[in-house]
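ok so dumb question maybe but i'm new to this and my supervisor (M.) told me to 'just get the structure for Protein p34' and walked off. so i did the thing. is this what she meant?? sequence i used:
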Amino acid sequence: MSRIQKLAIGSIFIGALVFALKYAAYYLTGSIALYSDALESIINVVTAIAAFMAVRVSAAPADANHPYGHHKVEYFSAVLEGVLIIVAALMILREAYFGFFTPKMLDAPGTGLVINAAASVINGIWSWMLISQGRRLRSPAITADGRHLLTDVFTSAGVLVGLVFIPVTGWTWLDPVLAAFVAVNILWSGWGLIKESIGGLMDEALPEATLSRVRDIISGNAEGAIEAHDLRTRHAGKMTFIDFHLVVPGTMSVTDAHDICDRLERALKDEVEDALITIHVEPDNKAKHAGIVVL
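this is what came out, is it supposed to look like this??
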């Protein structure tokens, strides 16, 4: 089992534990804000299961029907997570609306807040691990899961700080207002996840800084060629696809042209991990006198 799959399984168990703690906090206090926090944790468990299934499928090798692999399936998991976050936010807003017109004082606030704080600490540690490992392993599903959990940590912290004032001030209306704050915050988080994942499904190019570095590598390692043009890049999960046309002298042998391509592939793979590179070699009469100049 890969490191990514182990992280995905870990998220399922951590999510279930955090949900149990947050629901206990809600049960003890009757707080709508803590209810919203617990509801979001249910989404964490569901999306952790979806992430595990996605990374499991994405790890499958390329086959006749999917010659470029199954890496894009992770983006579907991230889109699903974003949609579920939005659904949870709408449910929370509904509870906050009714709670605002029928506010009540919290029961056992101290115990409930301590339990919820413990759950948030667990979430914080795990989210940091998911984000760092997801970026290192270039897994959109794991990174998205970690970013969502980190949002959960921040909103939980805001809720806890706000709920402390209710027993002191008697401001019972603060509970549904905090729940609405949580809902709006996770709505924004869900939209961000959907937008980013759709970008991956739509074959967005590499960031401009990385593209600039790719151009420099091609320019500095294509000695013997004339130019490179029509550079295209895209992401698919942890894979990065790079393809371009390389113009060489018409009299150059196939062997020499192949050696240049091998040199370019090695240099690009040193810079871009898990890159799949396609180079189309052309004779000098195909030069466009544009694109990447060979140094």
